Amino acid sequence: TEEKPLLGKKVLITAGPTREAIDPVRYISNHSSGKMGYAIAKIAKRLGAQVCLVSGPTCLQIPYYTDSYVSVESAKEMFEAVLEKYKEYDILIMCAAVADYSPTQSAQEKIKKTQDKLILELSKNPDILEFVGKNKLPGQVVVGFAAETQNIVENAYEKLMKKNADVIVANDARKAMGSDENQVYLVFRDKPTIMVEGKKEEVAKELLKRVCELL
Ligand code: C5P
Questions:
Q1: Is 15 near ligand 1, meaning CB less than 6 Å away?
Q2: ipTM of this model?
Q3: Domain ranges, residue 26
Q4: How far is the CA of 13 from the centre of ligand 1 (A)?
Q5: Pocket probe mutation, ligand 1, options 95, 98, 154, 169, max atoms within 8 Å of Cβ
Q6: CATH number at residue 44
Q7: Any catalytic annotation for residue 30?
Q8: How far is the CA of 145 from the centre of ligand 1 (A)?
Q9: Could you tell me the strand order of the sheet in which 194-199 lies?
Q10: What is the pLDDT at residue 1?
Q11: 3-state class of 129 per DSSP?
């Protein structure tokens, strides 16, 4: 229908940062607030979808507007949560700022400051978007995000192809993080790029409207 274009559709969204443990009290993370992913979840619900939000640690309240909410910490946990669920969903929106690397070994005990130099070895995390892009089922629409600081649209298109996504939402990393507003480019496989600017909920609305056209 006009107001509920996502009625009967299931949307899986990842949001927020991940935390990669160094030892029991320390971690590697980033400044993602989770606001964009939570805004998408809220609007998807409003448009009639059944919504699952897989969220890393954020300061946001656990939303009342999802049908299911999975709280995770690390990239590996987020990957496992998505892996378990993604096949049941029509739309997969990978909005989380997943840490690219995590400590190869997280120490069992708190690391003491006895050494003048401490070398931390990092290993690459699984790329969740790339996994769902490459394993998507017929009819599934996969949306990724790209935080860039230069050549935003070109880099986003490259990401779209590499990860086999259907849409990449590209933004300027310096403007997006933590803010209530966003300016993004929606980059498609074979449609012109669209620029959208406004509150994160407005950006979410435009994104979901365009995703409906791809279903
Ligand atoms: O390659 P890059 O990290 O710039 O790609 C960003 C996109 O990939 C985002 O949609 C993010 O959620 C997703 N991603 C992921 N798993 C990772 C790294 C990024 O799902 N390990």
A1: no
A2: 0.93
A3: 10-102+121-214
A4: 13
A5: 98
A6: 3.40.50.10300
A7: yes
A8: 7
A9: 68-71, 50-55, 10-15, 91-94, 141-148, 167-172, 181-188, 194-199
A10: 55
A11: helix
Residue 40 placed within a domain: yes
Contact 204, 40 (CB under 8 A): yes
Could you say which residues of the chain have pLDDT below 50? Answer: none
φ and ψ at residue 102, rounded to 5 degrees: -135, 155
Ligand 1, residue 131: give the atom nearest the CA.
20
Q: What residue's CA is closest to ligand 1, atom 21?
A: 127
Does a structural domain hold residue 113?
A: no
Tell me, yes or no, whether 107 lies in a domain.
no
Instruction: Please provide the average confidence, as pLDDT, over all residues in the chain.
Output: 95
Q: Which atom of ligand 1 is nearest to the CA of 126?
A: 21
Q: In the chain, what percentage of residues exceed pLDDT 70?
A: 98
Number of domains in the chain: 1
| Cα–Cα distance for residue pair 13/24, rounded to 1 Å | 28
Distance, CA 112 to ligand 1 centroid (Å)?
33
* Domain presence at residue 21: yes
How does pLDDT run across 115-174, given as a tens digit for each residue? 999 999 999 999 999 999 999 999 999 999 998 889 999 999 999 999 999 999 998 877
